[in-house]
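Running this now, will post back.
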Amino acid sequence: MDASLIDWSRLQFAMTAAYHWIFVPLTLGLSIIVAVMETIYVRKKDEFWKKVTQFWMKLFAINFAVGIATGIILEFEFGTNWSNYSWFVGDIFGAPLAIEGIFAFFMESTFFAVMFFGWEKVSRRFHLASTWLTALGAAISAFWILVANSWMQHPVGTVFNPDTVRSEMVSFWAVVSNPVALSKFFHAVFSGWMTGAIFVAGVACWFLLKKRETRFAQASIMVACLVGLAGGAATMLTGDSSGVKAAKYQPMKLAAAEGLADGGPKASFSIVPGIEVPGMLSILATHNINGYVPGINDILNGYSDEEGNIIPSVETKMALGRSAIESLRLYRETKETDPAQAIVHLRQFRANEKYMGYGYLKSPDDIVPNVPLVFWSFRVMVGLGSFLMLLMVVLAWMAWKKKLDRHSWLHYTALASIPLVYICGQAGWIVAEAGRQPWTIQDLLPVNVAVSSLSAGSVKTTFFIFAAVFALFLAIEVSILLKAIAKGPEIEK
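Update: finished.
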């Protein structure tokens, strides 16, 4: 397979996914914040809170509309650029995406219409229910998408059918209850709460800097802090869970994120190169200071895990994988002409089946992702996440002390943090996706087998077309948002 085709296909999908993820976390976060604000309005029956809710709901609607279009493009690329992948696992991967489209997306869209257009057409309580159901629909939509993504990280509930040469689902419940899916879902949703909170706080601080609508700004920051602190704390807890899952199911991702060449018990956590905390990585990965954490070289050369299982070297896995591929070929050739011999080949295939994906690799080094990219992305994510959590604490303290309007440095910091929360989210996804390369499906299907048979030139052309269209859409959305923000809620005159 042409290496440039693989690289351009990956780059195009990465660009589309990164662009889509600009809108998803803000949708998840703003939907909750708007719902909380409207709940206050319904309980207090104060028109001020209605205006507050309507302002942020307008910004939510702008973001929601553009996010839908990018999600559709992303799903189409599975068929255009990754058709072999779609053929191989379409029965499994397509199920959660279909449920997301049929159930969650329609639920979200239906109640969004009532939420946005139904202020004077339905009762307060029905409107409030619609707002909460829109937020719930957004979360459910994210759940099914992350179920699909998590199956790629840790494939469960499926078997490979040698007659159809496809993976087929045998347990829908196993796919849905995938432990990786649960960790990723909660981590993504709660980080979305933080994104929404930082966005609201930053925009509200702009009003404080302009000395406009100060009551509105302070009220908005109070709600943002409530959601942001809850989301930030939960993000840290679920991040810990994700780290444990990565250590168990994707040790190379963890090794790359730590730049860990040689592992062992009491593995140190590297804050930055040269500054380490002894034993901390073992605690984070295994919740045991004596826990064994394999490094990159250990995974390449083979090692014994904590339970005493012998993990073969990558070269051994590649040899067993090639044997599995050859046994599969012979089984398919003889199943009609020599059924007895076909059974022998099938047994040989099943013996080495779990290493089949390794048979398509060209070198053991292929399983090592871009270590500097993953290493520094992880530190950007953790560093910015910690800073944003601290900012939420400071804002909440100032709000409690009724000093929000006294410190312009805090207003500028909150405003500048809006792009930082997006960088933090993007860095997290780089760790999650670049860290599992070269696998489209962990240990099962590498990218060089999953890609479509296209010319690299056609993918390159569409990459630049998409980049231009996405840049235009983003510029339009930011322009509309800025105009809506500049107009303001028009509460105070």
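The two ends are 65 Å apart (CA to CA). More later if anyone needs it.
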